[in-house]
Amino acid sequence: MKPDDKLEQELEDKIDELVTRKGVTRRDFMKFCGLMAATLGLEASFIPRIAQAVATAPRPPIVWLQFAECTGCTEALLRTADPFIDDLLLETVSSEYHETIMAASGDHATACLDNAVSKYAGQFLCFVEGAIPTANGGTYGMIGGKTMLQVAQEVLPKAKKVICIGTCACYGGLPAAAGGLTGAKGVKDATGISTVNLPGCPPNAVNIAALIVNYLLNNQVPSLDRFGRPSFAYGEKVHNKCPRRGTSWCLRGFGCKGPNANHNCPSVKYNGGTSWCVQADAPCKNCTTPGFWDISAPFFDYSGNY
Amino acid sequence: MPKKDNPGNPNNPPTDPTPEPTPEPTPTPAPSSGNIIIDPVTRIEGHLRVETAVSGGKVSNAWSTSPLFRGIEPILKNRDPRDAWMLTQRLCGVCTYVHGITSIRSVEDAVGVAIPDKARVIRNLLMGAQWIHDHIVHFYQLHLLDWVDITSALNADPTQAASVDKQIYSGRNRTAAYFSGVKQRLQTFVGSGQLGPFANGYWGHAAYILSPEENLVMMANYLEALRIQINAAHMHAILAGKNPHPHGLIVGGVPLNKDLTSARISEFASASNAARDFVTTCYLPDATWLAARYSDYATIGGSENLMSFGEFPLGGAEPDSLYFPRGAIFNRQTGSVQPVDTSQISEHVTHSWYSGSALHPAEGQTVPNYTGINTSNKYSWIKAPRYQGQPMEVGPLARVMVNYGKGHQATVQTVNAFLQKAGLSLAGMYSTIGRTASRAIETKIIADAMGSWISQLTPSMQTSEMPFRSTFTMPDAGAGVALNEAPRGALGHWLNFSGGKIVNYQMVVPSTWNFGPRDSANVPGPVEQALIDTPVADQARPLEVLRVVHSFDPCIACAVHVFDPRNNQGVEVKAI
Fold it and tell me: Which pTM value belongs to this model?
């Protein structure tokens, strides 16, 4: 057996083990890899490399911090239908700290965070969900006796990369909308640390998965636009790919913001490709743009069709 | 090791004049006495801190603190009332949908529009799917590890586990090979040395009493539940675009039209049936089994008063047409369900970080007032709502007991069957395990009812009209209220608007009722009361405290939002 054949056999065995453990078929797994390739804008020739990365990569340590948030972003990941995406958090990566799912509480939980940050300094990926309150010394948000701002300032500089999940972590989101009192800001504005931003309310789990896969594949950040968003998911206007564009079912007359919104909703959809806002006759709210809670309001065109 | 007493305000140096809290009058420190602080409480929605004083191996006092304030209500001001639901829905991404629909219903109340019957059916299905999702995830992902020791499961014999599995529910036919696979999957965590989310649990604690095989069976269903909960989210996506935060809602009905085909209805039915089958064969039997095995928790963690606003309108008239009725129970008198009069609701801020209080309503402070955690004074961002001056527990236990007290047939049957199997009496429902079981019981009832609701769905006619929505003329000014039951309990939205813009918006939500602090009369909130007398075997690992706290299914992002900068007093919620 040639060395290449041996490596290939090892990969085949790993994939077999993976699909057996999950109780799915090999075809499901390759379909997932295909979805990831498509989402990342890669050619089909990348699919075997994605399969290799997912099946064989050492589990990268992940710390997931939650600040001024609603947990919808975490739920977006947990509620997705693909059998490989929800497992990303449990098995493909090593989730060292995530308050929603971790067994440990209180001091035992804080110890998990401290251990991960020191043990994996410079190596862990830090996901952040929620905005950071900065007014009144940051006291509108506290965890374990520290302000969320303090936690961010202590943990984030030690991460290999900071990834903001959802519009709140990226740009402040709802708590930063007009009328807000807590000085809530996105992570970059609050800490000065550069971030990869996956906005959305919530963001699409497929894009979160694709970002992790991209990391497993290349160990680097994908190309970003001026709002820090990966081009693979935010490079195109919703309206341009919308199946209702140019039809009598187009929701522009109902206040749809699709022509201004950058997101791959029409092609990826949500909940395992089941649907998305426009498909349910709900106009796009452009939830991936900084300040959308103020910019996009009113969310419907109440003067006409509503 | 547990921290002793108060961590103080991190923004204040040690010399800060902020008074230290008065220490609780605990006896001479002993191994079984002192204060335990759990911060953060994990496996919940949002951020929560719980402090307990322990004396003689039991909790003698407790304080519930929310350390996060997002301030959503002031953000709602000056917006179009018809837009509000989009924002309120973001109170919570776990119990998504519920704050959206309640906001919409409060606007519908204000403008006086009745929704089409077809929209009512769709909304009931969305709410039902939300309960099913929430409750399954709570039991398995958020609560189960309080009762099940994953490290013990690794010692299980798969053949015996298959036999235990069948004892728990006779219709299960899972093999030794299946349990061997589960065991191996769990082993990969321990074997890799990267325990991930299972690191640092209270494993090996003496209060974990299940056999290795029982633990393995429960962990198998932990993993199965991760899969099945996706079905419930899938149901939301079919009828409302996506989940979390479905957008297929609108004042006057639902916008859904083109996509509601007969194929989609079948897709919904099959997701609903899969969820129902899981509830029947796994969730309710597992909850019943735990109740029997941990029957000591049928006398731990109860509270005195329960309230339900009722849910699932089966017709236009409320509360008469509600499938789950409205009612209140005082002092555990299940047979004496009282009507609910919302004018009797008030909120206290004496122990919350807001200026003003029920005692000093006109002090005119216009900003929230964080003063650090001081359990003898102010210690939470949550307010303390009271009904007729009493703390009220809301949520699954309240609903099930109100249903039971009013003779709701499906509830009486399911509760009686549960009590018989678990070997408990009705009085045992007022407890930690009764609360946890109630969640499973009502999930079963709703999952069963969903079938007949689905049969009322009809495909849209594929015309450009909006068949599921009533039209109306939006008045310039108005006021409205909506009362709903979120998965975690009674939820009320009150709004008024003028000049087409929101003037005031108030929400009293389930976790505000359950996790609020003491009121102006220094009476503890329901969770604080429920924790009293909870045994604590090992203060460094307060597993028993977590059991009681988690049984309430904390959803803290929902609980903290109430604030009016111009009128920040002990807010009297106005019944309209």
Answer: 0.91
